[in-house]
Amino acid sequence: MTTDDIRSSEFGIPSNNNNSNNNGKSNDFSNGKEELLQHISKEKEEELLDRSPLHGIWALTNRELRKWYKTPILLFMSLIQPVIWLALYGRAFNLSTIFTSGGSISIPGLNIPKETLDAMANQIMQGTFGTTDYFSFLAVGMLSFVVLFTAMFSGMSIVWDRRFGFLNKVLTTPVSRGSIVMAKVLSSVLRSLAQAAVVLVIAVLLGMQLSHITAIGLVGTFGALFLMSFGLSSLFVLLALRSSDWQTQTAIMNLLNLPLLFASNTLFPARLMPDWLQLVVRINPISYGTDVGRQLLLGTAGFNGIAFDFAYLVGFAALFSITGIILSWRLLSKK
Fold this sequence. Notes:
75% of the residues lie in helices and 0% in strands. It is an all-alpha fold. Helix 6 (134-151) packs parallel to helix 10 (215-239), helix 7 runs parallel beside helix 10 and helix 10 (215-239) runs parallel beside helix 14 (306-331).
């Protein structure tokens, strides 16, 4: 028996051995408690991730949007082309001035009053474009123009993520492949709507007609632009699922953007086009988004009812978004 044991037995003082044993037990207990708490917290985090399917979509969407709004030069560059079309093409190519005084029509020997020329101009413009101002007609088309050119870059984001290795890292996380596709689509949709709003404000400042613009009309117009952008973004993301070459994706974009633009009613009324081209116009979803905008913002008569336009856009957006999600399960893989 040691001296500490004798002292402890005589005076009732706990021995150092007992203290060390108790300290060891308490340390083991605290360490085990910390490990248990860490294990529980990890399990809770995994449960939260598994039970929140929108978590991955929002994280990836926010990543795409940060790259956009933290570099204002990208927003500025994306608005240059439609603003040029509005300020130069829209204002310079003002068809209503052809019949007004100072226009290009001059009939020798006839003194046609200015009021008559103005009435003729308004009648011809109204019958051709549905409005007396071609600039307003073009301004609504520029909203679809912005949506198209923003949506076509949505697929390029996947190409760059694959080239720089970010896509491989995301594919190793619990985030589903469908969430990756939807994040690209949603970020493109939000960017296109923001840019379309800016273009609309610029068009109003440049002289767009305001007599038919209402709050309901604005909501309906941007609802149609949302559906159109959702479908177009899904289409371009779908085309980029297996692409790793930015040159190939750029070639696809250049192949589709101008035919989609000019084979629509964005710049010119569809009823004045050849019959075969009118068939293409009626298939093109851009025509339906533009038709909704002109009916709601300008009060023009569309080639379809607003309900049919929305139904077509809903079907278009649903078709390509669902197709993109399904194909992402097979085509979106690590390289």
